[in-house]
Structures are given as C-alpha cells and as structure tokens.
Amino acid sequence: MATDPKWANVAEDNLEEILIDHAYCEQKAASSAISLIVQFPEYDDIVFAMSEIAIEEMEHFKAVHKIIIDRGFIFGSERKDYYVNNLSKYFPQTHDRKVRLIYKLLFSAMIEARSCERFHLLSTTITDLELSKFYHDLEISEAKHYTVFLNFAKKYGRNLVDVDKLWEEFLAFEGKLIQNYGREEFILG
Ligand SMILES: [Fe+2]
Ligand SMILES: [Fe+2]
Questions:
Q1: Rounded to an integer, what distance in angstroms lies between the CA atom of residue 86 and that of residue 74?
Q2: How far is the CA of 53 from the centre of ligand 1 (A)?
Q3: Which of 121, 122, 153, 184, CA to CA, is 20 to 30 A from 2?
Q4: What distance in Å separates the CA atoms of residue 185 and residue 67, rounded to the nearest whole number?
Q5: Dist. CA 20 → ligand 1 center (Å)
Q6: pLDDT digit string (tens) for 36-59?
Q7: Distance in Å, CA 25 to ligand 2 centroid
Q8: CA 141, CA 157: separation in Å to the nearest integer?
Q9: How is 151-175 classified by DSSP, letter by letter?
C-alpha cells in the first residue's frame, strides 16, 4: 500500500514536527537493534549485523538532530506513536524464543520497508534540496536494513514457520494500518 503523495506536502509544511518525529524513529531503530543483541546473544551473525545497524541508526539520529538545531528548531519530547504501537501488537506473544526472534525480525523489516518508501517519496517530492539529498541517502540505507532483517527471518524461520506467508499477511495488515495513521506529519503513521 503506497503512501498518498499528498502526505509529502503535509510533511514539508510541518518540517519541525517531521524532523523531530524522524529523529525518534532513528533512535528507536537503534534501540531495537540493541535489544535484539541483548535478547538473542547466541546468534553471532545477528549480533554482528545489529551492531552495525545500531551504529548506522545513531548516525542517522545525529544527522537529523543536527538539521533540527541548524534550522533553529527545538528538539522536543517524543510523541505517542500509535502506528508503531499497533504494528508491534500484530504478532502474538510466544514463549518459543526462536519464533519470537522471527516475529521481531519481521516487525523490524516492516518498519524499515515503510521508512524506505516514505524517504523515497520525500526525496522525490520535497522542494528543499538539502533535505531531498538527505532523504535519498537514508532511503538507500534503510533499504539495506530491510533486506538484512528479512533475510535473517528467512534463514532462521526455515523449518519453523512459513516466513513468506507471515510476511504477506503482515503486509496486508500494515497496508490497512497506514491508511488510518498515514496522513499526518509524522515519518511513520
Ligand atoms: Fe535509519
Ligand atoms: Fe534502518
């Protein structure tokens, strides 16, 4: 489900809000990569990849924060993120650690995929050249992250769950969710 292109105009008209919201998206992406390390330390390849992703996400955070300050905006508190909250409740609680890992990887893959789609829209729509280039660079980075998460889900979900089916169903759910929350001046939802 593609984002309504009108969203990019709303975003550009509310630059301070969108940048603050964006900074927290990057911080949360870093935090969830770190939490995967803490919760699943025995997966060497995941720990290695998540270390890299956490560092990259904090570099993104730092860059967004700098733009906020350079433009004379004030970095404020985090807002309530209904879209991400709803998305995070999609997969059921499970005591099976291996299945829980797959759910977490698919959740992160979805956040990366939607961020990537929105950064692409911003980079091609926004009239501010500095931001257009910035969002283009981020689009490439988040696309890589999306692939990392989805590939790990496929690797460790094999013989455990039907990853392709889970992903398709999750995509359908997210497509409906973004229609409810996707029109406001936030990066996600
Ligand atoms: Fe990022
Ligand atoms: Fe990312």
A1: 28
A2: 8
A3: 153
A4: 17
A5: 14
A6: 999 999 999 999 999 999 999 999
A7: 9
A8: 24
A9: HHHHHHHTTTS-HHHHHHHHHHHHH
CA of 116 to the centre of ligand 2 (A): 8
How far apart CA 72 and CA 63 sit, in angstroms, is 15
Q: Is residue 158 part of a domain?
A: yes
Enclosing domain of residue 100:
6-181
- Percentage of the chain beyond pLDDT 90 is 81
Tell me, yes or no, whether 47 lies in a domain. Answer: yes
Neighbour-count burial for 26-57, b at 16+ CB within 10 Å, e otherwise: bbbbbebbbebbeebeebeebeebbeebbebb
- For residue 186, tell me if it sits in a domain: no
Query: Which DSSP category does 2 fall into?
Result: P
pLDDT tens for residues 2-11?
A: 888 887 777 7
Q: Give ion ligand 1 contacts, CB < 5 A.
A: 26, 57, 60
Regions of the chain short of the pLDDT cut 50: none
φ, ψ at 152 (rounded to 5°): -65, -40
Mean pLDDT of the chain: 93
Residue 187 lies in a domain: no
CATH of the domain at 143: 1.20.1260.10
**What pLDDT does 28 receive?**
95
